[in-house]
Amino acid sequence: MTYILNIETATTVCSVSLAKNGKEIFCKEIDNGFTHAENLHVFIHDSLKQTNIKANELSAVAVSKGPGSYTGLRIGVSAAKGLAYALNIPLISLDTLQIMANQALNTEAQRHKDTEKTSQNLRAAVSKYYCPMIDARRMEVYHAVYNHELKQQTETEALIVDENSGQKFSDYSEIYFFGDGMSKCKELLSTLKNANFIDNIKPSAKFMCDLSFKKFNEKTFEDVAYFEPFYLKDFLIKKKAK
């Protein structure tokens, strides 16, 4: 059996899941601002207690690596590295935006679960693209574009939201936008004929389970000593004016 503990703290959501062979068996999460320091280790403890899995039975620990909140990422990555080191198990990192894209794909699949799988429907699925957006404060959002196989199509970037924001997405046949950064862009992106919007998509450890299991089987692991979160932008500490 492969048991993987998944940790997601890149945004205001603090989320922990435990997966068995890539399938979620427990998840606990809260979206109550940046309360990760208070909740994360409690959630990890609860995930093991509720499933009767001992820490030394874990096969690996996976963490959402960003982009996202500097503080949230530091807390999640520090916890994951500590567990991986203490238990001598592999550390797996997952891109936060890909986790969100995975959720969007699952949401769409659930919505169309009763649709007959004709060749026309399959061709339509291939033509869809997914763009998760994380609020990067001010007038920026972290984003990237993924296809229906969760393969990244663009670089991860901090997009400045202005009247030209929609132009870079105009060539996609059909594209879905989602995430807490979407609201900044929705009015501008609504002018695109190919734009669709999915509500209530936030990073969640539930949607790390299959992704971390895949990386585990591929033996795609991080160096516990040197791994750092993917902040995308430098973290700057501003001094107060005297």
Structure description:
It is a single chain. With 242 residues, the protein is an alpha/beta fold. It folds into 2 domains: 3-95 and 203-218, Nucleotidyltransferase, domain 5; 97-198, Nucleotidyltransferase, domain 5. It has 6 helices and 10 strands, in the order E-E-E-H-E-H-E-H-H-E-E-E-E-H-E-H. It has helices spanning 36-51, 70-87, 96-111, 119-126, 182-189, 209-218, and strands at residues 3-8, 13-20, 23-31, 60-64, 91-94, 128-135, 140-143, 157-160, 174-178, 195-198. The strands form 2 sheets. The chain has a 5-stranded mixed sheet, with helices on both faces. Helix 5 (182-189) links the parallel strand 9 (174-178) and strand 10. The chain is globular, with a radius of gyration of 18 Å. Residues 235-242 have low confidence and may be disordered.
Sequence-ordered SSE layout with sheet pairings:
Elements: E1 3-8, E2 13-20, E3 23-31, H1 36-51, E4 60-64, H2 70-87, E5 91-94, H3 96-111, H4 119-126, E6 128-135, E7 140-143, E8 157-160, E9 174-178, H5 182-189, E10 195-198, H6 209-218
Parallel strand pairs: 1-4, 4-5, 6-9, 9-10
Antiparallel strand pairs: 1-2, 2-3, 6-7, 7-8
Helix pairs in contact: 1-2
